[in-house]
Specification:
Shape of chain B: globular
Number of strands of chain B: 0
Number of domains of chain B: 1
Strand content of chain A: 25-35%
Helix content of chain B: over 70%
Number of helices of chain B: 10
Largest sheet of chain A: 6 strands, mixed
Largest sheet of chain B: none
Number of strands of chain A: 14
Shape of chain A: elongated
Oligomer: heterodimer
Strand order of the largest sheet of chain A: 6-7-8-3-9-10
Number of helices of chain A: 11
Helix content of chain A: 25-40%
Order of helices and strands of chain A: EEEHEEHEHHHEHEHEEHEHEEHEH
Largest interface: A-B, 29 and 23 residues
Chain lengths: ~300, ~260
């Protein structure tokens, strides 16, 4: 099957700054593909190039089989974009926002009206249809932005940090809608710096930092491969870090020190922990927990995601 | 780079118009009241002390000029403050260029809406002064078309500024250095014959001067072939200044 997005050696440079530094990736049909990374990693720039907002400095980029340089109109007609910041028309009502957006895609009026009602039902805003956008909550605006991006029945929906700034309940609802869309056959691309979001939604993802792709795979694969099943967090007491590591003698998948905390990525954590207890080292706290994507990121970059 | 313009630019005009329909009653008051204040203060107040200008009362002399200035202010403020708010704060442009529309169409559509505002406000002032009995000739019915020629240059000049300014406060320079002097020295308040020849030559390069000449002549029924010259001047100006805003805005939005 033809890939939905194909990028090869994609570069975006702003004068001195290299925002995207030669990345290659493929997004397959009907998957949810994630770009995970801290602010400034190059996620948004990559997405902007896919949306035909920003021309690439060099490299190849095809969306739905079309070259972004040659066919921006044809590509934009078939994709939906949910931007990081809401850009609805605040003076207009919820329904008017959808109808106006439909007109940009040359949707006939009758079809636009039907489609708008369907989408309002889908994002659970039917009872707000006649409310002006400036009176909606943040979560409602997000849902409306998603509905608006779906007005042209896109084959690919691109979401740039879709739940940033939303409360947990609003976030859950958005996730639920996105899963329904995927089940309905829409390919999703999303950027996020929320581990949980990436883990729950993405079939595959790339971890980005400083314009480069560090690792690629499914969330489970990445965690399993890079970190293992579990993590042992130890609160360091003074500077006995080197000693502890020497004591463990490489019996690990890896480790990372962030501030006062030592993260141990385990092979056999049971055995490891028994040994440490007997060793007599002092730790201000310890915690054993399942490994997450955050650990993958920490291990790969030595930094947290939300710095 | 190739300019990407199509019929789609009218969708942007329509978007602005749909929003305008919701807010026009509140907006119209300011645009409508200001020229009336000028008419009252200058026309009645100052006009009382002025015997007559070129065989007409000062009020009659002033009124057609205010049609032109209202139209100028309407297009100039639409394509500066209002466009900037949509671009920077409401991110409307980004919402639209995520659809098949191009940046060029967004900018051109915004300018077309600026022209519409010129026609709209100019025509309202024309209506008001004709109710006040200050319109002498049916030629005045052509004024809405003149307002198109007035709206284009000022929509373009405003949009050039919008393509350049770092922040919204910087628009005051545009109004203080370009729009206000034009308002004062284009023959609205006094005939330019009274000024030194150099100033009269400079006035020839001000778009508003040509608009004022056209509106006054049509309101008073003093129609002659010179008017075509003024119209042509405005057309040429509009044609020259059509592309710069597209190029500047593209530089600003596509990076």
């Amino acid at each position: 099957m033809l890939p939905v997005v194909l990028a090869r050696d994609l570069v975006k440079r702003y004068n001195e700054l290299v925002a995207v530094d030669g990345i290659s990736f493929t997004v397959r049909q009907q998957e949810c593909f994630g770009f995970l990374g801290p602010n400034g990693a190059g996620k948004t720039t990559t997405v902007k190039m896919i949306c035909c907002f920003t021309p690439a400095t060099s490299g190849e980029l095809q969306v739905l089989g079309l070259d972004v340089r040659q066919h921006p109109r044809a590509i934009k007609a078939q994709i939906g974009v949910v931007p990081q910041e809401d850009n609805l028309d605040p003076e207009l009502t919820v329904r008017e926002n959808l109808l106006l957006y439909a007109s940009y895609f040359d949707l006939p009026r009758g079809e636009a009206i039907t489609r708008a009602e369907e989408l309002l039902a889908f994002v659970e805003l039917s009872d707000k249809a006649s409310t002006e956008v400036e009176h909606l909550s943040g979560g409602m605006k997000r849902r409306l932005t998603i509905a608006r991006a779906l007005i042209n029945r896109p084959r690919l929906l691109i979401l740039d940090e879709p739940t940033t700034g939303l409360d947990p309940e609003a976030r859950q609802l958005i996730w639920q809608k996105l899963r329904q869309l995927k089940a309905g056959g829409v390919t999703l691309i999303l950027t996020t710096h929320y581990m949980e979001e990436a883990a729950r939604l993405c079939d595959r993802l790339v971890i980005m930092d400083r314009g480069r792709i560090l690792e690629e795979g499914s969330p489970e694969q990445l965690v399993q491969h890079e970190v293992g099943r579990e993590v042992l967090e130890l609160g360091l007491d003074g500077d006995n870090c080197e000693e502890v590591l020497a004591f463990l003698d490489g019996n690990l998948n890896g480790h990372q020190v962030i501030g006062e905390t030592l993260f141990l990525y385990g092979g056999n954590l049971d055995q490891l922990w028994e040994n440490l207890k007997r060793s007599g080292y002092n730790f201000s706290y310890y915690r054993r927990r399942p490994a997450t994507l955050e650990d993958v990121f920490l291990k790969l970059t030595g930094r947290g995601l939300r710095e | 780079m190739k300019i990407a313009l199509s019929y789609r630019l009218f969708k942007v005009f329509w978007r602005d118009f749909v929003v305008f329909r919701k807010t026009w009653l509140t907006n119209i008051m300011f645009n409508f009241l200001e020229p009336l204040f000028y008419l009252a203060a200058m026309g009645y107040g100052l006009g009382y002390y002025i015997p007559s200008i070129k065989g007409m009362s000062y009020l009659e002399f002033l009124a057609p000029g205010l049609i032109a200035s209202s139209a100028m202010w309407a297009a100039a403020s639409e394509c500066t403050y209002d466009s900037f708010v949509r671009m920077r704060f409401q991110k409307t442009y980004h919402a639209i260029i995520a659809t098949p529309l191009s940046v060029d169409e967004v900018v051109a559509g915004e300018m077309v809406f600026g022209v519409f505002k010129s026609v709209f406000y100019g025509s309202i002032i024309l209506l008001v002064i004709s109710i006040l009995g200050l319109v002498r000739s049916p030629w005045a019915l052509l004024i809405p078309f003149v307002m198109i020629l007035c709206g284009l240059p000022f929509a373009e000049l405003g949009m050039i500024w919008t393509g350049l300014v770092p922040k919204i406060d910087t628009f005051s320079y545009f109004f203080t250095l370009i729009i206000t002097p034009m308002f004062l020295f284009s023959g609205i308040f006094f005939p330019l014959d009274s000024l030194p020849a150099v100033v009269q030559k400079i006035a020839f390069f001000l778009p508003l001067y040509h608009v004022v000449e056209l509106t006054r002549a049509l309101v008073l029924g003093q129609v002659n072939w010179n008017l075509l010259g003024h119209a042509l001047w405005l057309l040429v100006f509009s044609a020259i200044f059509f592309y710069p805003p597209l190029i500047l805005m593209r530089r600003r939005l596509v990076y």
